[in-house]
Specification:
Layout: E1 3-6, E2 16-18, E3 21-25, E4 30-35, E5 41-46, E6 58-60, E7 63-67, E8 72-77, E9 83-88, E10 98-100, E11 103-107, E12 112-117, E13 123-128, E14 138-140, E15 143-147, E16 152-157, E17 163-168, E18 178-180, E19 183-187, E20 193-197, E21 202-207, E22 221-223, E23 226-230, E24 235-240, E25 246-251, E26 261-263, E27 266-270, E28 275-280, E29 286-291, E30 301-303, E31 306-310, E32 315-319
Antiparallel strand pairs: 1-32, 2-3, 3-4, 4-5, 6-7, 7-8, 8-9, 10-11, 11-12, 12-13, 14-15, 15-16, 16-17, 18-19, 19-20, 20-21, 22-23, 23-24, 24-25, 26-27, 27-28, 28-29, 30-31, 31-32
């Protein structure tokens, strides 16, 4: 471990790393800027109203974006934490922002996906779904894809907010889709992982564990023909991206709600058993583990040769 930092309350979202700084939200409503090299706090921005839950910060062009549990979306200057603008939705925000050019996308529990001007926060369009927008949009070729709590997978054109794709998600879906080669990959609360063909708008495959039927809340990562995600069955699953066949599983001691990060042939993932695991992508064998003081439901962020992850006891850890 390179350093640890006390955020003061539970950290349930991923850090954003940019310009040698890790930006982390916590349940006490603070957005923290932490020097990546030393672990020293640079500034704190207070959302004022409510905590920052699963909404992970996004950084673009010197601005940090994050949503809070009172439904307010914040744009903050990355250099000093000064508020630039806020936008109010009508329910809590657990989705994470995505910046596309001069636009920023954010989902809300009011059922809308919002597209705002990144510079001024003005509403450009909103798209109404039939339930919460919990997952983070995945963007490909000018389309924002969301797998929704309304059990519908949608593609929405970023330029004008028009729906281009609509397909069954197979069940209530809190995860964000992972995109690769005209396929979308996500798990749902119907205990399935789906590989959805975007051309046919139908599943190319569905994966269900033969014995352990539990929901998938973790968002998938896809690389090198493999789909990796955690399950509430306490397993990390690796599937063949083309067929959905299981390549390997790794057993932890509690549900896995953390979403994996993959780098250098390694899978980095947290578990509610209070451990961070590093696994070999090829075969799922454990390379290393770290035991913290509380559950890791947040997801790891990797940049600049560092791995940053927060835990539910409010500690943020950095590994080299």
């Amino acid at each position: 471990m390179v350093w640890s930092y006390d955020a003061g309350d539970s950290v349930e979202s991923s850090a954003a790393i940019s310009g040698g700084v890790a930006f982390v939200g916590s349940m006490n409503g603070d957005l923290h800027a932490i020097d990546l090299a030393s672990g020293k706090g640079k500034w704190r921005y207070k959302t004022v109203t409510d905590g920052i839950g699963e909404s992970s910060p996004a950084v673009s062009a010197g601005v940090v974006y994050v949503g809070d549990l009172s439904g307010v979306f914040h744009a903050v200057q990355a250099s000093d934490g000064k508020r630039l603008w806020v936008f109010k939705t009508n329910a809590e925000i657990r989705s994470s922002p995505v910046v596309v050019g001069d636009r920023v996308l954010i989902g809300s529990y009011d059922g809308n996906l919002y597209c705002l001007g990144a510079r001024d926060g003005k509403l450009l369009w909103k798209f109404k779904t039939e339930n919460y927008v919990h997952g983070t949009p995945a963007v490909a070729a000018g389309i924002a894809y969301i797998a929704g709590c309304d059990e519908i997978f949608r593609g929405i054109r970023i330029s004008d907010g028009k729906e281009t794709t609509k397909a069954s998600a197979g069940g209530y879906t809190g995860a964000s889709p992972a995109m690769a080669a005209r396929m979308a990959y996500f798990g749902n609360f119907n205990n399935e992982v789906i590989g959805l063909n975007l051309a046919t708008r139908r599943p190319a495959w569905r994966y269900v564990h033969p014995q352990r039927n539990f929901p998938f809340y973790s968002s998938a990562a896809v690389t090198a023909g493999k789909v990796v995600l955690g399950g509430r069955d306490k397993l990390v699953h690796c599937l063949n991206a083309s067929t959905g066949k299981s390549l390997w599983t790794f057993t932890t001691r509690a549900r896995v709600e953390s979403s994996p990060a993959i780098a250098g042939g390694r899978v980095y993932i947290g578990s509610n058993d209070g451990r961070v695991y590093v696994l070999d992508l090829a075969n799922g064998s454990k390379v290393w583990e770290f035991t913290g003081g509380s559950a890791f439901s947040a997801s790891p962020a990797i940049a600049g040769g560092r791995i940053v992850i927060g835990s539910q006891d409010g500690k943020v850890y950095c590994f080299g």
